[in-house]
Amino acid sequence: MVYNILNRALYRGFHPALAGKEKIVKPDGKISKGNWLYGCLAVVPMPVPDGAKPQMPILCLHSPERWSGRVGEQSVYPSTLALFSGTWMDTDWEAVSKPVQRKWLERGKTSAGWKGIPVFEGDIFWHRDWKAYFVATYDQLRGFRLEPADGDGEPLTWFFGQLKHKGNIWAPPKEFPEKAVRRFHESRNTDARLETIQF
């Protein structure tokens, strides 16, 4: 079997697991437990018998150093696959909130190893001055953008000084507009995402 391995970009995706510590809401509205995985992408094609309809490949995230071939532990929901923007926000350890610091330290990390919060496609931000939500979006023509969640107005400049990270589109804050979640998923369905992966 031939794997399509993309080691030039970093992704985030949600791995379903009953014992998982986190929850997401999938585009169909169902809640799933599991964990977020980070890494490079391996696309595992599904065998297609003669006359059968092609199936979505299995998407796995793995260490940038090597692909272990373990599909079960590394597979993610295709609808949660999000590209890393290459941007880190809140890079000053002293300015980071106490819960974020505590979560970082509980993972066995130190303050010296803090790079900041990585910004991925689908991340949600609150603008402190404008009192409005913005979502990090990505497409091949325009690249990464900060789109207003209410759909009105122009995208923000790619600057995070007045923004606070509030979650992502699969685990949005309670007051985040439901129509913004639907609009994001509609503009980024799994089939279109697969085309982007194969491009």
What does this structure look like?
The protein has 199 residues and is mainly beta. Helices cover 14% and strands 38% of the residues. It has three helices and eleven strands; from the N terminus they run ββββββαβββββαα. It has helices spanning 98-106, 178-187, 190-198; strands spanning 4-16, 22-25, 31-44, 58-62, 75-76, 82-89, 117-120, 123-127, 132-139, 143-148, 163-168. The strands form two sheets. Strands 1, 2, 3, 4, 5, 6 and 7 form a seven-stranded antiparallel beta sheet that branches. Strands 10-9-8-11 form a four-stranded antiparallel beta sheet, with no helix packed on it. The protein is globular. It starts with a strand and ends with a helix. Residues 194-199 have low confidence and may be disordered.
Search tags:
199 residues; mainly beta; 7-stranded antiparallel β-sheet; 4-stranded antiparallel β-sheet; 3 helices; globular; disordered C terminus
Summarize the structure.
The protein contains 3 helices and 11 strands, in the order ββββββαβββββαα. It has helices at 98-106, 178-187, 190-198, and strands at 4-16, 22-25, 31-44, 58-62, 75-76, 82-89, 117-120, 123-127, 132-139, 143-148, 163-168.
Kindly provide the radius of gyration, computed on alpha-carbon positions and rounded to a whole number of angstroms: 18 Å
Which consecutive residue ranges, at least 5 long each, have pLDDT under 50?
Answer: 194-199
Q: How are helices and strands ordered from N to C? A: EEEEEEHEEEEEHH
In DSSP terms (H or I, runs of 4 or more residues), the helix count works out at 3
Q: Distance between termini? A: 20 Å
Q: Beta-strand level of the residues, as a percent range?
A: 35-45%
Number of strands: 11
